[in-house]
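To the wet lab folks,

You asked to see what we're planning to order before we commit. Fair enough. Below is the target structure as tokens, and below that is the sequence we designed to fit it. If anything looks off to you, flag it before the synthesis order goes out.
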């Protein structure tokens, strides 16, 4: 996923990132998906990071609270 984002033209990149953002809650709990979100956050695009933050906002307590999601989601939340 990260290589696809890196190698994509601007239009493809935005479409990929938008799809990932729409599925943020799935990616954040996934052992590999959380790395994709961290990669996107490291791009340091404020509008993208804001969209990811909004997707996570209502779930922060659950992501921190439940052991099976905390393992992966905490890394994204720290970013």
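Sequence we intend to order:
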């Amino acid at each position: 996923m990260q290589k696809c984002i890196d190698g994509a033209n601007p239009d493809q990149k935005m479409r990929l990132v938008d799809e990932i953002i729409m599925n943020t809650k799935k990616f954040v709990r996934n052992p590999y998906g959380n790395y994709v979100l961290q990669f996107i956050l490291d791009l340091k695009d404020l509008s993208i990071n804001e969209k990811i933050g909004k997707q996570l906002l209502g779930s922060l307590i659950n992501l921190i609270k439940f052991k099976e999601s905390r393992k992966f989601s905490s890394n994204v939340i720290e970013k």
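Structural context that might help your review: The chain has seven helices and no strands. The first helix runs from residue 2 to 7.

Thanks,
Computational group
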